[in-house]
Amino acid sequence: MTETFTSHAEAHSPQSPIAHFDASQPLAMSAGVMLAPFSIAYQTYGRLNADKSNAILLCHALTGDQHVASVHPITGKPGWWSALVGPGKPIDTDKYFIICSNVLGGCMGTTGPASLNPATGKPYGLDLPVVTIADMVRAQAMLVQRLGIETLFCVAGGSMGGMQALQWAALFPDRVFSVMIIAAAARHSAQNIAFHEVGRQAVMADPDWRGGRYLEEGVRPAKGLAVARMAAHITYLSEEALQRKFGRKLQNRTEKTFSFDADFQVENYLRHQGSTFVDRFDANSYLYVTRACDYFDLAQDYGGSLAAAFMNSPTRFCVVSFTSDWLYTTAESRVIVHALNAAAASVSFVEIETDKGHDAFLLDETDFIATTRGFLAGAARARGLDT
Amino acid sequence: MNAKPATRIDLLLVASMVETGARVLDVGCGDGELLRLLADTRGVDARGMEISQKGVNDCVAKGLSVVQGDADIDLADYPTDGFDYVILSQTLQATRNPRHVLEQMLRIGKRAIVSFPNFGHWRIRWQIAARGRMPVTSNLTYAWYETPNIHFCSIQDFVSLAEMVEARIVRAMALDREGAQMRFDGPWWVWNLLGEQAMFLLERKRA
């Protein structure tokens, strides 16, 4: 087995704390199997208070990781939610104890397809059971328990992280005081499944994918994964934002070259997005996390009624959508809000005006910052955290 | 969509009708002034619905539980008896279907509090009678062609509507221009003539 790739190294020995769960603490997966042993890599920021009431769990999106507010060990870039998380920021590390763990099926230290299968001594590849959002959440709940926290002050996340936050509220209403569901949905739409399938097929069409056994053979399906990322990246932006940023501008040239070189800036940008992604992400992991989103349909688990998932919920909810997000639209957020209203749950719903598309949730959007700050402050008052 | 930003006195009066710790839904909560008042002074579990996204964002930034919604459509989502009080402050006249809204309020809440500008007030009657023009007063500042207020009613009209939707009037108050309670007694027609605004506390008649 070769250890050529940095992303692979992080999968085995992450540069963050790691919690191991042995055979005595298996994870009951949606696929109907028990997973044991398994590990969860995580980061924490700030301090847990004496009565352990100030813990916030942040759930990362599809290709995010536990390094929410610290430098990424592979790319050297700031944490993916540095805009919101830090001292004095809306998710204030001076005030709250922040936990962020790599999701089950991920490739940054939590058990995923790149991890070693104890049964074979080789990477799981596709032998890892298909992971669901609920599996990710149950694993996080075990980590939170391991950290000695009974009730989380808040669970927050955007995109796939928002799905996890929603799933948390449904599975563990008494263990989560408030949740923020940002740019997410209660179920994956046909269009979203379709985009994910394009990405997966791009990975699997790469001859270096080797039926998912590329790690053992010392290769990797970089081209396929890069194409998957390029296609997905378009869905994270908006037409306006692309037009504003790139228009039809040419890349370091004055004339079109009458070739298939990256003449346009937008092509160059996407190629860059694709090639940097493959350095930090495992291709099989991409198959697993996209599948988890596709399988997500919370209402289905509650007899088709989303409201039934939240009946008598004591949790305070905040749902946020962005006007130009066409991947997880405001209409999808409204479905969640309607269900929460039907359950007479405490809910705030804000739609943020922006042309930055789905990725707006990662950015320093003034109204979004104000919403997050206000919602957490209100919840902190209700929780008696301000004293 | 308020006729005019409701005055402080008006809101204090609403707040005084709500018991401590009650669960309240404020429909058309604007910038959240009443919600804040209820939460701060009455320890109320206060939620809001507001049609303008700007109003909603401002409320949530203040830590209030508010959703964007349209009273005419979105009240239907809420469960029966989900709240102790449902409040409609200076918003009834801006709804498309006031009867439906009132019925929904009485279904969702054990009690409903409704305040509205009284179109039966003598000054308004005078403007129509003497000038033959749609009235514009310091409380109702919009010209007819730009007003969001599409369903004005008088106190007597509202009393009939309450009867129609089988609501019992628990309390009624006539308010002056500033929203202070006017203390007088008399039949509805007197109230209708003298009250610039009105506030009603209603509940469902027992079946």
From TrEMBL, chain B:
Annotated TM spans: none
A Pfam family of this chain: MetW
Protein name per its UniProtKB record: Methionine biosynthesis protein MetW
Organism in which the protein naturally occurs: Rhodoblastus acidophilus (Rhodopseudomonas acidophila)
Organism phylogeny: Bacteria, Pseudomonadati, Pseudomonadota, Alphaproteobacteria, Hyphomicrobiales
